[in-house]
Structures are given as structure tokens and as C-alpha cells.
DNA sequence: GCCGTTTTCGGCCCGACTGTTTTCAGTCG
């Protein structure tokens, strides 16, 4: 069951789309889009708020708040139903086709009665679009191509795939003639968990050579748009890359603009307008004289708008502008702050590398401490026994890792259907650290799942809840537990929540982290490595923690070993 | 429909590219 906030957000997004399609006031549509985002990201559950509380959500006024109350009371909103009755759901679906927006969708529906993607494909093949105003032969071609893309849509890709591609594009273009600077921006720079396309920014004396080099990259399959300032391509990696080329002295304004998010950009541009300034990707200008004031660095632009530099992971219009004005932006945790990793495996269970190899690689990352946490016997395929675990402990105690790195002997316990774990307290008490995770029985009731996690927190030996929602991005949605209750239990019992850094998990996600932090929870950013290369996934976990506004102090594996050990003692005898 | 470090009314972010147009609307980010 989704949070009421998510249901309301989806409803308002649909309402905004329907307003656009029916040719309603574009500003009204934008208001509902904005409200949808604000409600989806709001920490408090809207079903617990009254009319007054709802209006305290920025972007939610009287009319919107009343619609929320109406929805929560009756399960629908009359104004939305009215538009739904005018426009079939399939017409809205048409706007998912690239190059087809609300205006064309309405024309297709009104003139030809087209209300589904299939009907549109048929109509194009029957040449029915020829007589419509604004539809030419190129439009037909683009629509057919767009339909193909939609039908084979891989949607967004995992962040590691996008990062590899982006870094390779940046490396290649940095070598192109006339390129002065090159970097990726967009959602990848903001550290989002999945990426829809890659934005690459170049500062160059002349755009020609770099544009050419770009379209000739080996993984480019198609050039979508090709101009002096912007070129867009599709790649064989399932995502598009946009390249923008700007003059060198526009670098800061352009980087700011292309990093987004769109919502953040709109907010800072509004701020500019209020100061009689105009902000574009070319710089910050005086509206009256047209004179450029600043543009070279992001810091310059923010400063002229009365703001400190805002780190990209915060740029989601989730309060960062207000915090910047008040001087209360968090000092975000960084990868360099991490002193260790608290959830890793070896080939004793389902890891691929030996204890020695994992430890050597961890030492190479400069960690001060490193925990080995192989599986316990309740994941029966791992064939773990007390004897095998104790033998590993002896091996760990004997190892002398380089650079004085300290080894912690831990375990990843399985949280059973009733919330119990593999071993009794007296055996667990001798581990340095216990991670406990759910690995099965994902479909229990909400109450059962909540109780299960709360019981695990109440175990005096459990230090960290591993991959708390068990989601696998794009493959398995997270379990349906009352997370706020779990967060409260973590804070009460001194149990940390994991931010699992593996790109297909990133669990907890940024929004959960923001909510958990309000409960006073501590976090562990862990690689969950099953092989040496996985240790480097930490960067994605850190980015997720940054998106959750976490500081060094919130993350237990940035602490000194002494402070960490005190935390890990928890309720043990 | 929302909102105010000029405003409780009159604004609401800005520019690139494409295709169908003869000067611009639509789409996208």
C-alpha cells in the first residue's frame, strides 16, 4: 500500500496533465504539478493533517488542500473526475511518446478520436494525419519512431551504468580539439538513484570539432538533434546523452542550469527575477541594461542571489533554498569521511573473494576499520554453522592487515518471519557487529512486517538493519511496513539503518533517509560487497546519504573506532 | 491556483531545436 502522499501526488500530476491537454490555464497546471511534487516529498503523512496543516505545505493553498481532504474522505475529487470524463486515459498516455505533447494529443483526439498509442500507430499507417494542421510527413515519421521507443522503453537505468557511460563520454570529449572544460551535469551529478539521460557540458572556443567527435562516439546509435549549441544522441546503453557547448565564461551559470533539478532552477530563477535579474545558462544578467553580472562559477551565481553554494544532491527544491538563506545547510558527509565498511561478505558464504583478498582491497581504500559479515545459518543455502563462524573469527583475529586497519568480526543475520534471528544472544554477544536483514517472506501483512522489523531492532545484539526495505530497483518493490514506526524503534533502541550502496538496492532511499533522520536515527553506509569491485560502490551510497541531507555525525562508519565500538555495544551483556 | 524583502492583484523561468511555417507553435529539458 502506497503512502497517502504518493496517491495524492499521482492524482495531482494526472490533474495537471489533464488541464494541459484540455487547453486549460498553463499556470494552473503548473501549480498542481508543483503541489504533486511537494506532497510526494513531504515528511508528514497527509492523511494525518487537517485543512490548516495541509496549507502549510509550500505550494498547497486552500483549493488544493480542499481537494486533498475531498480525496481522503471520498476516494475521488470531483474536479479531476470531470476532466477524466472529457479525456480518455489513453490520450494522456499519448503524451508519453517523445515529441508528442498535450497540444498535439488533443488535436489527435478531437479531430480523429485517437485515444491510445495503438490507434495512433494505425492512423499514421492509414495516412489519416496528413490533413491535420501542424502535422507533416516528418512528424509522422517521428511519431512512429517515438512509438517504437515507447514500446521498447527500458525506462531509467541504474546509476552505475550511467556513471560509466558519462565518465567515458567526458574522457573522450576532453580530448577533442578546442575543449577547455568538460563535465557531466544533470541527475547523475545530483546523485539520483536511477538516470533517465546524461547531460554533458563543454566549454569550448568553437563547437564544431567537439560536436563532431560526440556524434562519432562508438556507442552512439542515432543523432536526435544537432545544432551549434546542443546535440542529442541515443546510445546502445539504453539512454540518451545531451551535449551542450557554451563559451568558457558561461561555465558556472551553465553548470548550474544543466545540473538542475528543474524545480531548483525555477526557484533560483524566480529569486533572480525578484532582484530585477535574469538567470539563464549564459549567466546572471541585469534585466534593464542586459549587462552580464556573473557567470564564471556556480559560487558566483549563488552568491549574487544571496545564497551559499548548494551541493548538487540537495538541489531538489526540498528546502535547500530556505536553508541556504538561513545559513542552515547541512555539511554533507563525503566519501572521504568514511573510516570503514560494516557490511561485507567473503567466499565463506555467497561472496566471490577470499577473506584475505577482501581485506587487502579494503585496506587499499584507506579504511581504519573493516567488518566481515558473512551470512548466518538461517539462509540455509549458505550452510553456515557456529563452528565455521568461529573458525573464520580465529582467521580474522590472526590477519594483520596493512596500514594498521582494524578488522571487526561480524555477521549478517536473517530476520525471520516473526522477527527472530539465527542465533541466541549469548552467541551473538561475542560478535563485534551484527547486521540483520530480511531475505524472504516479503508479502506478509503491513502489521506483521512492521512488528518483524521492530522486534529485530529490540534485539540487544542487532546493530544495523541491512537493506531495510529489501527493494531491488526496477525488479522488486520494497516491503510494505510502517516505516515511521520502524524509524522510531531504531532511534529508541540505538539501532542504525543501513544505506546499502549497491546500485540495484540504494536502500534506504533518499526520501526514507530524510524521514528517518527526523526520528533521530543513525545510519551506516555499507557497500554490501560480495566481491572486490563492489567495495567501490560506496560512492553511490554516499550520494544517496547526501540526498538525504546527512552529515558526518549521522553516519556511524565515519566515527572513530572508539566511538563506533561504544555504539555497537548497545544492550549486550 | 498560488503567493508577496516592491505586490492581497497581477504576475507566474528561460532558451534550443524541429517542423511546418513565411514569423511561429510545440516540445523538451
Automatic annotation (TrEMBL):
Required co-factors: Mg(2+)
Polymerase/histidinol phosphatase N-terminal domain sequence ranges: 340-417
Presence of the UniProt keyword DNA damage in the record: yes
One MF annotation (Gene Ontology) recorded for this entry: exonuclease activity
Compartments reported by the entry: Cytoplasm
Documented EC number(s): 2.7.7.7, 4.2.99.18
Domain DNA-directed DNA polymerase X: 3-316
UniProt keywords, alphabetically: DNA damage, DNA repair, DNA replication, DNA synthesis, DNA-directed DNA polymerase, Exonuclease, Hydrolase, Methylation, Nuclease, Nucleotidyltransferase, Sodium, Transferase, Ubl conjugation
SUPFAM superfamilies: DNA polymerase beta, N-terminal domain-like, Nucleotidyltransferase, PHP domain-like, Sec63 N-terminal domain-like
All residue ranges annotated as the Helix-hairpin-helix DNA-binding motif class domain in the record: 52-71, 92-111, 127-146
Gene3D superfamilies, per the entry: 5' to 3' exonuclease, C-terminal subdomain, Beta Polymerase, domain 2, DNA polymerase beta, N-terminal domain-like, DNA polymerase, thumb domain, Metal-dependent hydrolases
InterPro entries: DNA-dir_DNA_pol_X, DNA_pol_lamdba_lyase_dom_sf, DNA_Pol_thumb_sf, DNA_pol_X_beta-like, HHH_MUS81, Hlx-hairpin-Hlx_DNA-bd_motif, NT_sf, PHP_dom
Entry keyword annotation includes Nuclease: yes
Superkingdom of the organism of origin: Bacteria
Major localization class: cytoplasm
Swiss-Prot/TrEMBL catalytic activity: a 5'-end 2'-deoxyribose-2'-deoxyribonucleotide-DNA = (2E,4S)-4-hydroxypenten-2-al-5-phosphate + a 5'-end 5'-phospho-2'-deoxyribonucleoside-DNA + H(+); 2'-deoxyribonucleotide-(2'-deoxyribose 5'-phosphate)-2'-deoxyribonucleotide-DNA = a 3'-end 2'-deoxyribonucleotide-(2,3-dehydro-2,3-deoxyribose 5'-phosphate)-DNA + a 5'-end 5'-phospho-2'-deoxyribonucleoside-DNA + H(+); DNA(n) + a 2'-deoxyribonucleoside 5'-triphosphate = DNA(n+1) + diphosphate
Function: Repair polymerase that plays a key role in base-excision repair. During this process, the damaged base is excised by specific DNA glycosylases, the DNA backbone is nicked at the abasic site by an apurinic/apyrimidic (AP) endonuclease, and POLB removes 5'-deoxyribose-phosphate from the preincised AP site acting as a 5'-deoxyribose-phosphate lyase (5'-dRP lyase); through its DNA polymerase activity, it adds one nucleotide to the 3' end of the arising single-nucleotide gap.
Protein name listed in UniProt: DNA polymerase beta
Gene from which the chain derives: polX
Amino acid at each position: 500500500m502506497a503512502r497517502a502522499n504518493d496517491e495524492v501526488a499521482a492524482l495531482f500530476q494526472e490533474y495537471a496533465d489533464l488541464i494541459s491537454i484540455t487547453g486549460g490555464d498553463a499556470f494552473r497546471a503548473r501549480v498542481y504539478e508543483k503541489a504533486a511534487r511537494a506532497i510526494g516529498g513531504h515528511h508528514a503523512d497527509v492523511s494525518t493533517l487537517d485543512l490548516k496543516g495541509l496549507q502549510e505545505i509550500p505550494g498547497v493553498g486552500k483549493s488544493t488542500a480542499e481537494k486533498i481532504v475531498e480525496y481522503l474522505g471520498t476516494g475521488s475529487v470531483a474536479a479531476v473526475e470531470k476532466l477524466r470524463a472529457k479525456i480518455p486515459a489513453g490520450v494522456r498516455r499519448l503524451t508519453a511518446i517523445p515529441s508528442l505533447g498535450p497540444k498535439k494529443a488533443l488535436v489527435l483526439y478531437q479531430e480523429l478520436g485517437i485515444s491510445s498509442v495503438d490507434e495512433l500507430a494505425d492512423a499514421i499507417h492509414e495516412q489519416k494525419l496528413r490533413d491535420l494542421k501542424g502535422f507533416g510527413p516528418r512528424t509522422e515519421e517521428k511519431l512512429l519512431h517515438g512509438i517504437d521507443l515507447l514500446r521498447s522503453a527500458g525506462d531509467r537505468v541504474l546509476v552505475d551504468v550511467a556513471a560509466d557511460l558519462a565518465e567515458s563520454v567526458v574522457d573522450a570529449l576532453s580530448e577533442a580539439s578546442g575543449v577547455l572544460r568538460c563535465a557531466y551535469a544533470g541527475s547523475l551529478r545530483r546523485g539520483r538513484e536511477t538516470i533517465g539521460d546524461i547531460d554533458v557540458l563543454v566549454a569550448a572556443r568553437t563547437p564544431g570539432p567537439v560536436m563532431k567527435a560526440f556524434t562519432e562516439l562508438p556507442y552512439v546509435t542515432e543523432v536526435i538533434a544537432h545544432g551549434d549549441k546542443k546535440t542529442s544522441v541515443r546510445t546502445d546503453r539504453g539512454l540518451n546523452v545531451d551535449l551542450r557547448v557554451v563559451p568558457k565564461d558561461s561555465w558556472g551559470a551553465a553548470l548550474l542550469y544543466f545540473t538542475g533539478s528543474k524545480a531548483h532552477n525555477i526557484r533560483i530563477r524566480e529569486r533572480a527575477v525578484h532582484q530585477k535579474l535574469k538567470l539563464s545558462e549564459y549567466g546572471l544578467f541585469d534585466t534593464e541594461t542586459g549587462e552580464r553580472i556573473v557567470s564564471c562559477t556556480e559560487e558566483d551565481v549563488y552568491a549574487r542571489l544571496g545564497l551559499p553554494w548548494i551541493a548538487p544532491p540537495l538541489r531538489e527544491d526540498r528546502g535547500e533554498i530556505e536553508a541556504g538563506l538561513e545559513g542552515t545547510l547541512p555539511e554533507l558527509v563525503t566519501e572521504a569521511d568514511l573510516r570503514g565498511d560494516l557490511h561485507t561478505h567473503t567466499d565463506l558464504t555467497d561472496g566471490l573473494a577470499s577473506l584475505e583478498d577482501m581485506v587487502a582491497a579494503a585496506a587499499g581504500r584507506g579504511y581504519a576499520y573493516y567488518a566481515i559479515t558473512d551470512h548466518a545459518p538461517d539462509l540455509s543455502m549458505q550452510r553456515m554453522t557456529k563452528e565455521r563462524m568461529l573458525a573464520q573469527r580465529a582467521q580474522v583475529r590472526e590477519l594483520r592487515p596493512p596500514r594498521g586497519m582494524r578488522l571487526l568480526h561480524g555477521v549478517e543475520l536473517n530476520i525471520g518471519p516473526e522477527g527472530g534471528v539465527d542465533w541466541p544472544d549469548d552467541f551473538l554477544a561475542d560478535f563485534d557487529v551484527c547486521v540483520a536483514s530480511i531475505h524472504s517472506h516479503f508479502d506478509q501483512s503491513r502489521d506483521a512486517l512492521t512488528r518483524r522489523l521492530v522486534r529485530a531492532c529490540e534485539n540487544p545484539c542487532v546493530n544495523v538493519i541491512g537493506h531495510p526495505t529489501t527493494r531491488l530497483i526496477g525488479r522488486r518493490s520494497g516491503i510494505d511496513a510502517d516505516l515511521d514506526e520502524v524509524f522510531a524503534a531504531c532511534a529508541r533502541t540505538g539501532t542504525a539503518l543501513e544505506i546499502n550502496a549497491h546500485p540495484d538496492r540504494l536502500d534506504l532511499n533518499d526520501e526514507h533517509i530524510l524521514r528517518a533522520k527526523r526520528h533521530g536515527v543513525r545510519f551506516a553506509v555499507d557497500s554490501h560487497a560480495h566481491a572486490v569491485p563492489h567495495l567501490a560502490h560506496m560512492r553511490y551510497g554516499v550520494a544517496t546519504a547526501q540526498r538525504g541531507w546527512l552529515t558526518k555525525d549521522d553516519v556511524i562508519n565515519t566515527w572513530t573506532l572508539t566511538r563506533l565500538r561504544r555504539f555497537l555495544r548497545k544492550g549486550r551483556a
